[in-house]
Each structure stands twice: as structure tokens, then as C-alpha cells.
Write a structure and sequence with these properties.
Oligomer: single chain
Strand content: 5-15%
Number of helices: 8
CATH architecture: 3-Layer(aba) Sandwich
Radius of gyration: 17 Å
Order of helices and strands: HEHEHHHHEEHH
CATH superfamily: Alpha/Beta hydrolase fold, catalytic domain
Shape: globular
Helix content: 25-40%
Distance between the termini: 27 Å
CATH class: Alpha Beta
CATH topology: Rossmann fold
Largest sheet: 4 strands, parallel
Number of strands: 4
Length: 222
């Protein structure tokens, strides 16, 4: 398993907190991630990788496969609350878009460049939405929650399948009966159980409630 930080460089309020990443221009972050995937393939000798990403990280599954021609190098792709089509932030996008247009530098300073670019209708999102969501040969699992108020509506986290792509859009409320917030998706046990399902599933396999885990599995000592 390989995990890494990206998108650290931006003139933004968030830079006051060293641990905060994924704030930089999305095109720069997409290129950085593509370079990292190529590096992992080089040092491991793997022809293909499995990708797992939360929120913006989920969106970058699409930037890698569609903007950086990485689809041939991906086997399974799993997103948690992926912002594939732009967010309305609970219906605030119209007001936010006006503020961003009026004071783009201030908006980027307050919310980060990446933050402003992820609002529905942004120039970046228009370019991303002009590309197919998916690519042939990749097994996609997009996991989302009805309680997600960061990436809204849930359709922003749903992927459309092209011919040859295998796509499961997995609503946690329907499959597992849970509704974690956006920020809790990476630590919610039901969501994590579906990440494992997404990484292991066979082509055409659909999720079942039996694959859901609602709490941390107990460890029995020997």
C-alpha cells in the first residue's frame, strides 16, 4: 500500500496548518498524483494499481484516468464521497460562484485554490465534466452517503459507465443502512468495509448488506 500527500503549495489561509494538504491548483495536483502513480509502478514493477481516494482524492481518480491517460494502469478504483462533477455545498453554489467571480484571489485565500475549483460550474469542473466519467477495463466503486453535505448532491459522486467500464455506485444508506458525514467516510467501518468490497469485487459483482461491517472487528488473541 502506498499513501502520499499532494497539493501542499498555495497562498491560502489553510497553509497556516502544516498538516493540511490538497489545497493547490487541481491541475498541478493531478499532475503530481500522476507522477506518483508512475513512480509506484516503476519501483514495484506493477503493470496496474488499485486507487482509493476520498473527496478530492476520489475526483483525482478521474483526472488520472481521463486527463493523464492512466486508465490502462488501473485495475480497481474506489472513491469515498468523490467530487466528480462539482459540489453545490448544500445549495450554496450560486452565492459562492458570485463571490469567487467578484473576488477570486480573496476566495482562493479563504477556501484554497482547490476549494474554489471544486464548486459546480467552475472552469476546472467544466473541463472535467466534458470528459467521460469512466474508462473501459477499470472496475469502479463510488461510495457515498446521504448525510454528505460537503459534496452535494449525491449525484456529484455517481459515475456514468462507458462501454467496457464496470461501475458500482454504492449508496451507504441503501446498502449498509448508515449515513456518515463526509469527513467521517474514511473512518466509518461500514464505509471501509465497502472500500474492501470495491478492491476485491469481481466484474459485475454488486454489493450486498452482508458485506457491511458496522463496527471495528474484534481481535481475538491466541
Amino acid at each position: 500500500m502506498w499513501a502520499f500527500d499532494y497539493g501542499a503549495d498555495d497562498v491560502t489561509l489553510q497553509n497556516m496548518i502544516p498538516s493540511v494538504k490538497a489545497i493547490a491548483d487541481l491541475d498541478d495536483s493531478a499532475a503530481e498524483i500522476a507522477d506518483q502513480v508512475d513512480y509506484v509502478r516503476e519501483v514495484t514493477g506493477a503493470e496496474k494499481v488499485n486507487l482509493v481516494g476520498h473527496s478530492q482524492g476520489g475526483m483525482h481518480i478521474k483526472t488520472y484516468t481521463q486527463m493523464h491517460d492512466g486508465a490502462n494502469h488501473v485495475f480497481h478504483a474506489v472513491a469515498l464521497g468523490g467530487n466528480f462533477h462539482g459540489t453545490t455545498l448544500g445549495g450554496q453554489s450560486e452565492v459562492l460562484a458570485k463571490f469567487i467571480a467578484f473576488a477570486p484571489r480573496l476566495a482562493a485565500f479563504l477556501a484554497s485554490t482547490a476549494g474554489t475549483q471544486q464548486v459546480v460550474g467552475s472552469e476546472f469542473m467544466q473541463r472535467l465534466n466534458a470528459l467521460p466519467d469512466t474508462a473501459p477495463g477499470v472496475l469502479y466503486t463510488s461510495i457515498y452517503s446521504p448525510a454528505d453535505m460537503t459534496v452535494t448532491p449525491n449525484s456529484s459522486s455517481q459515475l456514468a459507465a462507458v462501454d467496457g467500464a464496470d461501475v458500482v455506485n454504492l449508496a451507504l444508506g441503501e446498502v449498509c443502512g448508515v449515513a456518515p458525514r463526509h469527513d467521517k467516510l474514511p473512518t466509518d467501518w461500514a464505509a471501509l468495509s465497502q472500500v474492501i468490497f470495491g478492491l476485491k469485487r469481481a466484474p459485475g459483482e454488486e454489493p450486498e448488506p452482508s458485506t457491511c461491517v458496522s463496527e471495528e472487528p474484534s481481535v481475538v488473541g491466541s
